[in-house]
Amino acid sequence: MTLAHIDIAIIAIYLVATIGIGFYLSKQASKDLNSYFLGGKKIPWWALGVSNASGMFDITGTMWLVSMLFVYGLKSAWLPWIWPIFNQVFLMIYLSAWLRRSNVLTGAEWLKTRFGTGRGAELSHMIVVIFALVSAIGFIAYAFKGIGKFAVIFFPWEFSADTYAIVIFAITTLYVVKGGMFSVVFTELLQFVIMAIASLAVGIIAINMVSPEALNAVIPQGWKSLWFGWELDLNWSGVIDSVNLKMQQDDFSLFGLFFMMMLFKGVLFSMAGPVPNYDMQRILATRNAKEAAKMSGIVSLVMFFPRFMLVAGLTVLALVYMGPKIQASGQAFDFEQILPYAIQNFMPVGLTGLLIAGLLAAFMSTYAATVNAAPAYFVNDLYKRYINPNAPQKTYIKMSYLVSVLLVVVGVGLGFVITSINDIMQWIFGALFGGYAAANLLKWHWWRFNAYGYFWGMLSGLLASLLLPLIAPDIQPLFAFPYLLLAGLLGSIIGTLLTPAEDDKVLMDFYQNVRPWGVWGPIRAKVKVQHPEFEPNSHFSRDMLNVGVGMIWQISLVVIPIYLVIQEFVPMLAGIGIMLLTSYILKKNWYDKLED
Predict the structure, then answer these.
(1) Cα–Cα distance between 14 and 362 in angstroms, integer?
(2) Looking at residue 349, what DSSP letter applies?
């Protein structure tokens, strides 16, 4: 792809600016571990929220959304529930506040507040550290493969994909290692602004270039409908025949059943809380529990409109200008061609450089956040705890530099070995995250659940996640979730009931501090005896109502920009009305009742 000099200059300015921010903020970051990994808990909640949104704006996920919107139309707005995207709603309503009240540095350190310091706590602590480090290496390998394939398409120089990836990794690692959380957050603010401008521009270009009549001519009946029955009932025959093959491969035909499984898995996974990655680090970096809740709330508010303007814009341009060519060729459609086609044919000089910088920023945001979060688990939870507990803060910071670089080297090495982005993503979300839910769900909501139960629940869930693809290789990952959940539950419950309960003081301190709802009756009674003035959390019904309203609020934020780009203004206004109504309910029933 040929880039104009102004486009190359824009990309170069962006890269120099990110490095400059990292070095400028390095003095603040190097004070101690709290400053390096959590920004001293002084960064404003809104900045952390926008940074978190930037880290989630990864381009591989965005291109998946483009392919889903192309094939399934407005019904694809539900498909991010497979991750599940509404975990941010659970976080904003109550889980971020619960997590932040622990006042710790990492998710592994949090376990000490729940399980104490015995042998079982050591085992549970260790398995979370291993989970965090292994998943981080997997994400680094994923980013390495993705950024290389991205760069080789768009940059004009004759380098291999791996060479591009190494150069971009070196630049990103430099500012992350030097500036810690401070540089990650403030470079991601810059990156988010760039991505938002580029995304809005793509959406506006699509609105100007594609009329509703032109779009209607290249889509099947039902493509513009958000609603569905038991079966999907979309037929591309005579429009783009090859898309029917894609739908058969995805196996979403019984969409009602698929939707229920997404909801079932998503709710349980969301109630388990965040996995130990950059999302959790942003929560722990806030000033207090109230700001943690607001930080998680702003993620959805700022991310969805620009991201789905980009998704809808690219999809509409591809449908109208590529669709007839695809049908005429009679060949299968390569969705990876949507982005380069749109940039080459529709982006003016200047905006091309901005869009490529924005897409580059999307990769760098996710990668940078991962590289900042993962070393905390090694340095704080292994090196400081077991190897060198009384070292000066400067020693811990230097060790953080070293661990960051080593993680990147190992991740890059894995990236050289793995040939497919899809392979590594299936491994991360299937083998690792699939076994996470049961033990982490119980740790919040059942007083009797102990550290041995957590260890065996995590271990059995993860082993089941690794073995199930070998035992049943054809099973759809989503429909494997009940088996993984059952394995995790059995390990958790058996491990708990065969070992003693945790010490009452540990459980009472945790319950008083975090104030969770759930099956805490015996502990609640003991706390009330010692502290008659203590008010237990009685907000389960209110929280669940707010979660339901929040999920409706979130889906309205997704469909409004799509309806805008495809110029369906009546449903867009209905979406805005629903968004305003749900926002008002959340303001009265959630925001106004936030407490530390």
Answers:
(1) 13
(2) T
Residue position matching structure tokens 């513009």: 224
Which pair of tokens denotes residue 335?
A: 């969705």
Assess contact for 100 and 371: CB atoms under 8 A. no
CA dihedral (530, 533, 538, 539) in degrees, to 10, reads -120
Nearest to 341 by CA among 565, 66, 139, 117: 66
- How many residues in the chain? 596
C-alpha torsion sign, points 524, 530, 532, 534: negative
How far apart are the C-alpha atoms of 536 and 124, rounded to whole Å?
Answer: 27
Lookup: tokens for 172: 């990103």
- Are 115 and 528 spatial neighbours (Cβ–Cβ below 8 Å)? no
Signed CA dihedral, 182, 195, 158, 144: sign only: positive
**Do 278 and 369 touch, CB atoms closer than 8 A?**
yes
- Is residue 431's pLDDT more than 70? no
Neighbours of 490 (CB within 10 A): 16
Region 386-396: mean pLDDT is: 84
* Terminal C-alpha separation, the chain: 53
Domain ranges of the chain: 5-96+139-418
CA distance linking residue 575 with residue 559, whole number of Å: 7
Of 491, 489, 520, nearest in space to 507 by CA: 520
The model's pLDDT over 450-509, given as tens digits with 9 standing for 90+, comes to 999 999 999 898 888 778 767 877 777 777 888 889 999 999 999 999 999 999 999 999
Residue with tokens 């789905």: 308
Three-class secondary structure of residue 519 per DSSP:
strand
For 272, the 3-state DSSP assignment is: coil
User: Is-cis flag, bond preceding 220, omega within 30?
Assistant: no
Tokens of 43: 């960064």
The token duo for 310 is: 């980009």
CA neighbor of 20 nearest in space, from 196, 181, 175 = 175
In this predicted structure, what is the pLDDT of residue 561? 97
CA distance 442 to 412: 35
| Residue type at position 251 | D
Q: Is 50 helix (H, G, I), strand (E, B) or coil?
A: helix
The H-assigned helical ranges of 472-539 are: 481-497, 504-514, 521-530
- Confidence at residue 528, expressed as pLDDT on a 0 to 100 scale: 93
